[in-house]
Design goal:
1 helix; globular; 125 residues; alpha+beta; single chain; Jelly Rolls; 46% strand; 19% helix; 4-stranded antiparallel beta sheet
């Protein structure tokens, strides 16, 4: 009985630590938005002393369209927003988003009804 309890506790601890580790180390994201899914969220990550730099590419944005990147913490009823930037047209981009140092931040991606896709990397600074 004691061995089973120790095994279960060890397994639970390892699975929890792996999920926390995995959510805070993967900083490269691929995304797509459209009419059916106008908003996407990344997985959680940590910020640096001042915030994050987002560097990437977006494509298939309608003419004079834009995509909004917003750094938020997710809440039960609503998200707490810290900074946002709109990137117009398609191509490579690099933006800085300011936020206090901490964990469990996500990037909220708005498509404004246009079909678009892209990829980016989140770099703490």
């Amino acid at each position: 009985m004691y061995k089973k309890l120790v095994f279960f506790m060890l397994f639970a601890l390892l699975s929890y630590s792996y999920s926390v580790y995995a959510s805070h180390t993967d900083t490269k994201y691929k995304w797509n938005v459209g009419v059916d899914v106008p908003i996407r969220y990344t997985s959680a990550f940590s910020t640096g002393k001042h915030g994050v730099v987002i560097e990437g590419f977006q494509g298939n944005v309608k003419r004079n369209g834009s995509i909004r990147y917003e750094i938020v913490t997710r809440g039960f009823w609503n998200d707490e927003s810290f900074d946002k930037a709109d990137v117009k047209n398609e191509g490579n981009f690099k933006i800085k988003l300011m936020a206090p140092p901490g964990d469990n931040y996500v990037i909220k991606i708005y498509g404004f009804g246009s079909m678009a896709n892209g990829k980016f990397e989140v770099i703490p600074y």
